[in-house]
Amino acid sequence: MNAGSDRLNTGFVPTGFERLDMALDGGLYEGLYLLEAVSSSGKTAFALQVADQVAMGGTDVLVFSLAAARTELMARSLSRLTFTNSGTQPGPALTARDMTICSRRDGHCPDEQELAASSIEVYGQYAERIYINEGWGDWGVEHIRTTIARHKHLTGNSPVVVVDCLQLLAPHDPRVSDQRNLDKAVLELKRVSRDFKTPVMVISSLEQHHLVQPGMDDLRGSGAAAIVPDVILGLQVREIPGQDGRDGNAASQPGGACSVELRILKNRHGPAGQCIDYDYYPPFNCFVEGR
């Protein structure tokens, strides 16, 4: 097979969310996926759940976390597994802090200890395919490119890539504006997806005033972030500030699920505009797709 026909032979990787996969014609393809949301709406939890589900399906995932520590992300995954393993019942499930604070673990009842142990066992079945890289604002796209190349050289596998988040990447040129650096980062991340023939999912944080349902108007003036990505996903908590006494902040809801909507704002290779409903359980970092 020649190089040209090889490039046309593009596969996809299911996200593990049935309705999202249907909307994306099977899952994630080679290309740049931008996941946009305001702070505390669950965007990192959503991307991490996709990463875990991709790894469960047998595909390597490289996670570049520019804010959260590796241990925090692992604890969040384990918390989600306690929730799903308990039948998505909040009562017996354990939070990420429950999983990391020794004093809390010592106080777990036998059922909770068994649930934690079984969740750790499940995580161990796919953890070798999750590669979490920590950074603190000193990583740019070139570091991401180099890490992917090294991974592919050592394993022979082309990984799905998750970057959290766009605004925390090191600037390409500190002398130019933030907008120009963001544009450059988006362009280079798109080039990474093309060069390695792999999906790259990048989290982008919207300004807090975008609490209303995000749409293409919110992207106006954001340059390459509106033009370059193959797919743009907008994650939105349904509650509006002041409505029904709630403040729209997913992390502030003390119990039960928040109603969250994922809207496909742009889809270069298919229809856009679809909305997918989720129940989001913030204490357990878990999204449950509606039917």
CATH architecture: 3-Layer(aba) Sandwich
Residue windows where pLDDT falls under 50 for at least 5 positions:
1-5, 240-254
Query: Shape from CA axes?
Result: globular
- The gyration radius over C-alpha positions equals 19 Å
Let me know the number of strands.
11
- Quick one: CATH class? Alpha Beta
Instruction: Give the SSE string.
Output: HEHEEHEHHHHEHEHEHEEEE
Strand composition percent = 15-25%
- Overall SS class: alpha/beta
Mean pLDDT: 86
What does this structure look like?
Helix content is about 35%, strand content about 20%. It has about 290 residues and is α/β, with parallel strands linked by helices. It has a single domain (about 15-290), classed as P-loop containing nucleotide triphosphate hydrolases (Rossmann fold, 3-Layer(aba) Sandwich). The strands form two sheets. The protein has a nine-stranded mixed sheet with strand order 5-4-6-7-3-8-9-10-11. Helix 3 (about 45-55) crosses helix 4 (about 70-85) and helix 4 (about 70-85) crosses helix 7. The relative contact order is 0.20. Residues about 1-5 and about 240-255 have low confidence and may be disordered.
